[in-house]
Amino acid sequence: GPLINSEAVVSTQSTGEAGVDPLISNMVETMIDNKRSNHISGVVGAYNTIMAAERGEVPCTVTSANPLSEDHLESLKGALGKFLKPNEKLLLDTATDGSLIGGMVVEIGDKRVDMSTATKIKKLKAALSLPL
User: Fold this and answer.
1) pLDDT single digits (tens) 7-27
2) Which pLDDT score is estimated for 16?
3) How far apart are CA 71 and CA 76, in angstroms?
4) Exposure of 81 by Cβ count < 10 A (0-12 exposed, 13-18 middle, 19+ buried)?
5) Shortest CA distance to 116 belongs to which of 98, 102, 97?
6) Global pTM?
7) Which of 27, 28, 22, 35 is nearest to 9 (CA)?
8) What is the crossing angle of helices 22-33 and 6-13, to 10°?
């Protein structure tokens, strides 16, 4: 993970009023003291996931070969919104990965749906390599 220097520690102490839970900043400082700073991003990620769940926010990452247009994004949000409970809201994050060739990979909550061209090609190759 990224190296964290002692100057970064000082800045975490002043973020109390910026909305960082004191429990979290104490844990982060303890981990830095114990040379476990490489675990911090995982802990912060888990904390953010728990807090998002508390607020009914459902994280969703859509990775596509090329950046999605606004129209694509809107129709995607509409489609994904149908899977949510009435009190939940979608936190959509997009990423691009040229190795997908086309299509997209959607990760919502703990589910992953791979609709990428690269995976379709891989499955086709596997099917073709089986004896007839």
Assistant:
1) 444 444 444 445 566 776 776
2) 42
3) 8
4) middle
5) 102
6) 0.56
7) 28
8) 160
Tell me how far apart the alpha carbons of residues 105 and 59 are, in angstroms, rounded to a whole number.
Answer: 14
Q: In this structure, is the dihedral angle defined by the CA atoms of residues 91, 94, 95 and 97, taken in order, positive or negative?
A: positive
Handedness of CA 74, 56, 1, 12 (dihedral sign): positive
Distance (Å, whole) CA 104 – CA 93: 13
Per-residue pLDDT reduced to its tens digit, 92-102: 999 999 999 99
pLDDT score of 118 more than 70? yes
Question: What are the tens digits of pLDDT across the range 55-71?
Answer: 888 889 999 999 999 99
Q: How far is CA 32 from the centre of its chain?
A: 24
As a whole number of angstroms, the distance between CA 88 and CA 86 comes to 6
